[in-house]
Amino acid sequence: MMISSDSSACFEAVACGVHVVIIGNFTDSTSNPLDGVVASDCWDICYDAACMQNVLEKKSESHVINLTSLLEPVNEGTVMKFLGYRE
User: What is the pLDDT of residues 3-12, one digit of tens each?
Assistant: First the structure.
């Protein structure tokens, strides 16, 4: 399990099959780099110690992420697409 806030390391952990707990923000919106990217059973958001304890106690099933559906090779074409250039 990994505990983090807003970090690209959250994606890296999930890609390796590690469950991620994101620390919720009480005073502002919580930034979740995994929302809408990977299934919500791969991560939790916790705002307090009780939530964290519940996540630690529940039996976490391993998950498999299809990385080819999320990642692209880095080459001239994909970089130009990322930058918004059209051919």
Answer: 998 888 998 8
In b/e form, how buried is each residue of 30-54, taking b as 16+ CB within 10 angstroms? eebbbeeebeeebbbbbeeeeebee
The long-range contacts involving 50-53, CB below 8 angstroms and separated by at least 24 positions, are: 52/3, 52/21
Handedness of CA 59, 29, 7, 5 (dihedral sign): negative
Listed by start position, the domains of the chain span 2-83
Q: Given a cut of 70, is residue 59 above it in pLDDT? A: no
Q: 41 with 63: CB under 8 angstroms?
A: yes
CA separation for the pair 23, 44 (Å, rounded): 9
The whole-model pTM stands at: 0.72
